[in-house]
Amino acid sequence: MRLSQALRASLLLGKCLPTVKSNCSRFSVKRYVYDDYLHTYFPKFTVMYAHDPDKICKTGDIVLIEELPQKLTTLITHKVNKVVYPLGDITDPITGKKVVGLRVDLGKVAYRDFYKELYELYGKNPQRKFDYKKAPRRGWQEDKKDFTHRESYIRYHEFDDDDQPYAVYK
């Protein structure tokens, strides 16, 4: 598949990246490119912008973006359809179970049920204090430690005397 064919796909799955543009979000879309010499596929990432006036996605979310019938600008060619997975809350689409991460020693995906069974068999590890049932949902630290909902701007140098908490360094 060529780059032009991949970019013309009507629906794409991308990861939301931080941006300074208003009314749009920046996404990293993963595609696989075939290498004729090695006869295998390699991942290639494309960065694109999508129209998001309601700011429904935050940095780190996995989002379904849809191609616009007509470009808004030269950069904005897609629009945000829906948030598939918020950051830190991945659900396996086949089993419907919540995913914790990849277990390298087992060579497979570890679900929350797996750790629940381990705790029942061996007892809870005192060093693992995190509990998914008691954990607050994402967004509870807005204006405390999470400033992704704030409008950001580009700061070109670091020697300003004034405080610029929402700046993105160039």
UniProtKB/TrEMBL annotation:
GO annotations under biological process?
mitochondrial translation
Query: Which cellular components does GO assign to this protein?
Result: mitochondrial small ribosomal subunit
A single GO molecular function term of this UniProt record: structural constituent of ribosome
InterPro entries per UniProt = NA-bd_OB-fold, Ribosomal_uS17, Ribosomal_uS17m_metazoa
Record keywords: Ribosomal protein included? yes
Alphabetically list the UniProt keywords. Ribonucleoprotein, Ribosomal protein
Which PANTHER family does the record match to this protein? 28S RIBOSOMAL PROTEIN S17, MITOCHONDRIAL, SMALL RIBOSOMAL SUBUNIT PROTEIN US17M
The entry's family comment says: Belongs to the universal ribosomal protein uS17 family.
The molecule here is called 28S ribosomal protein S17, mitochondrial isoform X2
State the species of origin: Diaphorina citri (Asian citrus psyllid)
